[in-house]
Amino acid sequence: MALLEILKHPDPRLRNKSVPVEEVTDEIKQIVSDMLETMYAAPGIGLASIQVNEPRSIVVIDLSEEKDQPLCLINPKITVTEGEQEYEEGCLSVPSVYETIQRAEQVTVEALDREGTPFELKAEGLLAICIQHELEHLEGKLFVDRLSKLKQQRIKKRLEKQAKETM
Ligand code: NI
Questions:
Q1: At residue 55, does pLDDT exceed 90?
Q2: 115 CA distance to ligand 1 centroid (A)?
Q3: pTM for the whole thing?
Q4: Are 149 and 157 a contacting pair, CB within 8 Å?
Q5: Is 124 a catalytic residue?
Q6: How many Cα atoms are found within 13 Å in the side-chain-facing hemisphere of 30?
Q7: Looking at the domain assignment, is residue 2 inside a domain?
Q8: How far apart are the CA of 134 and the centre of ligand 1, in A?
Q9: CATH code of the domain containing 156
Q10: Residue 5: inside a domain
Q11: Which domain holds residue 126?
């Protein structure tokens, strides 16, 4: 297992659109394990593969207190959305920024699990938010893209300054 480096906004690699995993091989299973370890260590509740510079579509999520209920979504696709909810979101690639974002209240997602078996999941509440947030990463988008241009500029400047200070 290995801890992976998490790319930080405004790293242009976060803007790459992910491509499908062709087959769930041992290499892919290893990436899933490394992503989970990286997410738990951060600590975070969700991580998309592009955040660790892996271009194939993988999302890991764990909302449990004990961090023992990992959810792995390979090639995930949202097929149904319903309702609306708001939540103050954060992101491991956008450190120390928390903003209220509006998303669907319920989603149905289709994906492969970490063994390559297709499944469908209906989610609501925080899990639905997390799924929508992580799937946006696979499209090369970040939650801050949903904010006003002015706010986006401020966040970008702050993060660029932080990055320089920690170099
Ligand atoms: Ni994120």
A1: yes
A2: 24
A3: 0.96
A4: no
A5: no
A6: 5
A7: no
A8: 6
A9: 3.90.45.10
A10: no
A11: 12-165
